Amino acid sequence: MRAVLIDELLGCIGTLxxxxxxxxxxxxxxxxxxxxDPRFTPLTHTQLPGLDLHISVLSxxxxxxxxxxxxxxxxxxxxLDG
Length: 82
What we know:
Elements: E1 2-5, E2 8-12, H1 22-35, E3 51-54, H2 69-75
Antiparallel strand pairs: 1-2, 1-3
């Protein structure tokens, strides 16, 4: 979950593995992204009108066999591989 205001990241919280039903994970992570991300100040009421939320739901983790850093870079697909 990312909270963005006019191309400025305000918070980003999530997990790679599910810990609860998806809807509860989204609510939990949205709240934490807005108010508990230690890298950012908490969201304020005045920021709400311009807020743009981004939610990414990841698939299950899959191994990506590689033989080197160059092989890894060649196999990674931006926007698809996390």
